Amino acid sequence: MENSKGKLLIIDDEERLRKLLARILQLEGYEVLEGATAKEGLNKLRNDTIDVVISDVKLPDMNGIDLTKKIKTDYPATEIIVLTAYGTINDGVTAIKNGAFDYITKGDDNEKIIPLISKAMDKAILQRRVLELESKLKVKFGFDRIVGTSAAITDAIKLAQRVAVTDTTVLLLGETGTGKEVFAEAIHQASPRSAKPFVAINCSAFSKDLLESELFGHKAGAFTGAIKDKKGLFEEATGGTIFLDELGELDHDLQAKLLRVLESQQFIKLGDTKTTKVNVRLLAATNRNLQEDVAKGTFRSDLFYRLSVFQITLPALRERRKDIGLLAKYFVAYFAAKVNKQVASLKSDFVEKLETYNWPGNVRELKNIIERAIILSDNNELDASLLPYEFEHPAAKNSNSISAFDLASVEKLHIQRVINHTHGNRAEAARLLNIGIATLYRKLKEYDIDH
Ligand SMILES: Nc1ncnc2c1ncn2[C@@H]1O[C@H](COP(=O)(O)OP(=O)(O)OP(=O)(O)O)[C@@H](O)[C@H]1O
């Protein structure tokens, strides 16, 4: 029934009463299914999506109260109304305790029954929508969201899935834009901690003092401006997972504090005298070579060993060219839907250019390039003319010549200009440059740009 107001199931062995109730409810616009026994009813529930069940409390093969319990366990979105005999209110009350929406005494008139069913129906439909949204969200942040069929990426996914169900600390390695944060979220979603928070922080985006207070929180008066007590992210993530991106940027002091949390599950808030206990799983990521940093003495070796119990290295996009076409199609569908455009085809010159490009910014760069192409296209095709300059002149990117035109100089000049334009606001500059904030910090250091 196309315009049905919802699906009901009546379970009652008294045929005459069942048929009468079914008729009344059909006239109200509901689709009605019937069952004479608990067994028949449960069969219907298995094969159909039922919003509301109306069940007699006395059935030949089962007690309606136990049936309520069973239905609520197996089909949590379905609501149940129990039919009780006159004078047996206790049955109704017990049914509600077992999860029934309400009870009706047989012989109550329609004026009471119909509004009650309508209320139960509204609740059931709402519950179903919530469950659907929740499962979509799970898919959105789970492993299903990671696109790619190459051996390099599927190996990484398999490793991550295996470690997800444990409480082990994981270190995600890989160039910028390879999907480290996407993996961290998927690991959390596939873990027993998924119902608790996933909290992510980019360690390079804060000064040392601010980062300490962000991570561990502070007491009022700990420093000028600390007016109230503040919870840190470790506390916010209680029971869940914390993801520290660009962990290689932590200074020595904070490295020691992090080691302490890992070893003893406790820390001291800024300005506090006592320790705070935490139960948090740590996932960390870096695009630095931490082993080199350990050799140089800038990263603590004890922390490094502690973190590298389980490492997953994510492949650069150029190491899995087979996935470029797949990812491109995925992002085309995503952005086309977002801007309400129909994109019918990707021309072969467009795909070829994508497949041969070097992708220093990996999947993030590909995503941005596709978004740009979709915005620029004025028909339903994407061709090579929609790609930026460096795709037309790949030599520009790969040149080794040391001249005023070598890529590094051009890049330095460009970053300098953007930083000037944003008056030194680095987050805004990273956004305009389409790179991660961590990458921007690294480049500022590399090119010795200070602001
Ligand atoms: N395999 C993938 N499938 C689909 N989308 C992906 C995949 N990998 C990355 N992305 C997308 O690419 C973008 C960059 O990913 P992410 O932020 O996880 O990279 P990262 O390695 O953490 O980068 P950085 O080191 O710069 O922080 C995100 O928008 C993400 O949704």
UniProtKB/TrEMBL annotation:
Transmembrane segments: none annotated. SUPFAM superfamilies: CheY-like, Homeodomain-like, P-loop containing nucleoside triphosphate hydrolases. Residues 7-121 form the Response regulatory domain. The modification 4-aspartylphosphate is found at D56. Keywords: ATP-binding, Nucleotide-binding, Phosphoprotein, Transcription, Transcription regulation. GO terms for molecular function: ATP binding; sequence-specific DNA binding. Residues 146-375 form the Sigma-54 factor interaction domain. GO terms for biological process: phosphorelay signal transduction system; regulation of DNA-templated transcription. Pfam families: AAA_lid_14 (PF25601), HTH_8 (PF02954), Response_reg (PF00072), Sigma54_activat (PF00158). The keyword Transcription regulation applies. This is Two component, sigma54 specific, transcriptional regulator, Fis family. It comes from Mucilaginibacter paludis DSM 18603.
